[in-house]
Design goal:
This protein is an alpha/beta fold and 122 residues long. Helices cover 36% and strands 25% of the residues. The N and C termini lie far apart (77 Å).
């Protein structure tokens, strides 16, 4: 067997961060469709979803941790199987120290507005 024949090609899906927003995106594409588009084009994408289920939420020493699940739609499973039939393997990656979570710009603006509103009342 040739060296290149042994080498497996990978299609990687890398989760980089989570952002929380107050404003709902208007008519977002389903997140699995964006992942499938990224797999086809081999370009990064950003998904918008409320499908993530938080399993537990803990605060310890000022650090917040969450465990959550992401449902795997049947269409995405089919796409992954289709990719694997071509000889590639699909891999999901998360940062070693966990997935960083940030507040979106709209969330920060809402918090600041609430603070100003409360300050006026005091």
């Amino acid at each position: 067997m040739d060296k290149d024949e042994k080498k497996t090609e990978y299609q990687n899906i890398v989760f980089t961060d989570i952002q929380f927003h107050t404003v709902k995106p208007t008519n977002p594409a389903p997140w699995y469709r964006i992942i499938m588009k990224s797999l086809r084009s081999d370009k990064p994408g950003r998904i918008y979803s409320k499908d993530f289920a938080i399993k537990n939420f803990q605060e310890e020493d000022g650090k917040i941790t969450m465990n959550f699940t992401i449902p795997m739609p049947e269409k995405l499973k089919e796409k992954i199987e289709e990719i694997e039939k071509t000889g590639k393997r699909v891999r999901f990656f998360l940062p070693k120290n966990g997935l960083p979570m940030y507040l979106g710009k709209d969330m920060i603006e809402k918090i600041n507005a609430e603070k100003r509103h409360l300050a006026k009342r005091i």
